[in-house]
Amino acid sequence: MIPVVVMGVSGCGKSTVGALLADRLAVPFLDADSLHPAANLRKMARGAPLDDDDRWPWLHQVGRALAAHPGGAVVACSALRRAYRDVLRDAVPGVRFVHLAGTREQLAARMRAREGHFMPVSLLDTQLATLEQLDDDETGTVLDCTLDPATLAGAAQAWLARPAGLVGVLRTGVDTR
Ligand SMILES: Nc1ncnc2c1ncn2[C@@H]1O[C@H](COP(=O)(O)OP(=O)(O)OP(=O)(O)O)[C@@H](O)[C@H]1O
Ligand SMILES: O=C(O)[C@H](O)[C@@H](O)[C@H](O)[C@H](O)CO
């Protein structure tokens, strides 16, 4: 089974959809948020965005966690920049990305409605500013995060069934502004 990263900014549904997808694929689900060092979590909770130096060690840790499942796994990880995805690709060659994309308004509404989460809505703008869309020479698909979670997991599963060695991004007409 191919290793999968469900990516996107805070609140896009990575954990919700990633867990459903892992169930469908019968592989373990990992949440990269649980691999953040405590200092990163504290930083975000006080309203300060992470920078590259905060993220590199964490991304290597996420890559190692994914590589520890040779039978495949699904990890929910923001993977906002191409260089971050490169770290994951180096750790787990062939990894595929499922980007759950939405507009600022859709994402902000989600984050506001969510209770008991460390991430403040005020960090959404820096998340969106940091986000680099999947490039055409990456291997991934972009899905509309406002579809219902089961539909999204099904769409991701269908795309993952495409042949190994696939390169390119399947965009499904999502508004990513
Ligand atoms: N497809 C969806 N449709 C409607 N609501 C959703 C959907 N996916 C997730 N949600 C809800 O949106 C909120 C954010 O979802 P979730 O925690 O899965 O996102 P996330 O990307 O993992 O966020 P973070 O990275 O900030 O932890 C939750 O309250 C969740 O129940
Ligand atoms: O790279 C990042 O800035 C982080 O991974 C964030 O995206 C959060 O961990 C997550 O989304 C919590 O809301």
From TrEMBL:
Instruction: Write down the chemical reaction(s) this protein catalyses.
Output: D-gluconate + ATP = 6-phospho-D-gluconate + ADP + H(+)
Q: Name one GO biological process term.
A: D-gluconate metabolic process
What does the organism's lineage look like at the top?
Bacteria, Bacillati, Actinomycetota, Actinomycetes, Micrococcales
**Gene3D superfamilies given in the database record:** P-loop containing nucleotide triphosphate hydrolases (3.40.50.300)
The record ties this protein, via InterPro entries, to:
P-loop_NTPase (IPR027417), Therm_gnt_kin (IPR006001)
Q: In which pathway does it act?
A: Carbohydrate acid metabolism
EC assignment: 2.7.1.12
Q: What is this protein called?
A: Gluconokinase
**Record keywords:** ATP-binding, Gluconate utilization, Kinase, Nucleotide-binding, Transferase
Family per record:
Belongs to the gluconokinase GntK/GntV family.
Cited Pfam families: AAA_33
| Top-level division of the source organism's lineage | Bacteria
Q: Which SUPFAM superfamilies does the record associate with it?
A: P-loop containing nucleoside triphosphate hydrolases
Q: Name one GO cellular component term.
A: cytoplasm
Q: Which GO terms describe its molecular function?
A: ATP binding; gluconokinase activity
